[in-house]
Amino acid sequence: MTTNINKIKCAVFDLDGTLLNTIKTINHYLNLALSEHGLGSVSEADCMSFVGDGAVKLIERALARVGVDNSLFDRVYKTYNDAYNASPYYLTTVYEGITELLSALKSRGIKLAVLSNKPDFAVCKAVDKFLPDTFDIIHGGRDGIPLKPAPDSLFEILNDLGVTPIETAYIGDSEPDVLTAKNANIALPIFVSWGFRSVEQLTFAGAEILVDNPMEIINYI
Q1: Which residues contact 44 (CB under 8 A, 6 or more apart)?
Q2: Residues 6 or more apart whose Cβ sits within 8 Å of residue 173
Q3: How far are the Cα atoms of 42, 72, 170, 193 from residue 182, in angstroms, in the given order?
Q4: pTM recorded for the entire structure
Q5: CA-based R_g, the chain, Å
Q6: Above 80 in pLDDT, residue 6?
Q7: 181-216 confidence digits (pLDDT tens)
Q8: Are 19 and 119 in contact (CB under 8 A)?
Q9: Is 77 helix (H, G, I), strand (E, B) or coil?
Q10: DSSP state at residue 16
Q11: Do 15 and 126 meet the contact criterion of CB atoms below 8 Å apart?
Q12: What residues have CB less than 8 Å from 153, skipping those under 6 apart?
């Protein structure tokens, strides 16, 4: 499958598991927060299954995994966010080929944006650190705006960039990304195999276009 380049004017990317490999970072701070409150730890594989729906769901799922109810949620959540905010780059890396992909898209005049469920401050810091001067708009989770898979923030991005869903590619790595693209009627939803979900999980969620390396995305845009 290929798409006429003249029809796609914008590419919106998820962050964690799509542009940046942050699972070791998230797992580190999650376990730090759990251990500080005497709650043990979770594995990286567990953590990978918890992510995708924002920090609130991350903490709720971790507490359920260690067998604790949500009475400790506020304290664990604050510890997690404070630690992450203090050193958000720890253990994070850019996936191989991402920088080259983004450069190629920019050279074609494609507008670029990031949309993540991670708290907005952490998203902006991470993008500025690892992929500076690349994106036209960067949005993380913000108060009063529903997280993905609600399409609200994605529609805001498209409106600000002056493009429509039919002119947009959306690239992500998880079930919430599949649903976000569907809920916004995105013309070109693309999903990556190097992220936090398996190909089987993405296919079951409804993903049709899957790529194994970043430069494959160029074949569709």
Answers
A1: 23, 24, 27
A2: 14, 16, 17, 18, 191, 192, 194, 195, 196, 197, 202
A3: 32, 35, 10, 19
A4: 0.92
A5: 17
A6: no
A7: 999 999 999 999 999 999 999 999 999 999 999 999
A8: no
A9: helix
A10: B
A11: yes
A12: 115, 139, 142, 145, 146, 147
DSSP state of 171: E
Give the distance, in angstroms, between the CA of residue 177 and the centroid of all CA atoms in the same chain: 8
**Measured distance CA(98)–CA(45) in Å, rounded:** 23
Q: What is the pLDDT of residues 34-46, one digit of tens each?
A: 999 999 999 999 9
What structural domains does the chain harbor?
10-21+93-219 (3.40.50.1000), 23-86 (1.10.150.240)
Tell me what pLDDT residue 119 has. 87
The model's pLDDT over 62-93, given as tens digits with 9 standing for 90+, comes to 999 999 988 999 999 999 999 998 988 999 99
**Which tokens is 22 given?**
């942050």
Q: Is the pLDDT at 152 greater than 60, yes or no? A: yes
CA distances from 217 to 102, 105, 144, 172, 206 (A): 10, 10, 33, 11, 18
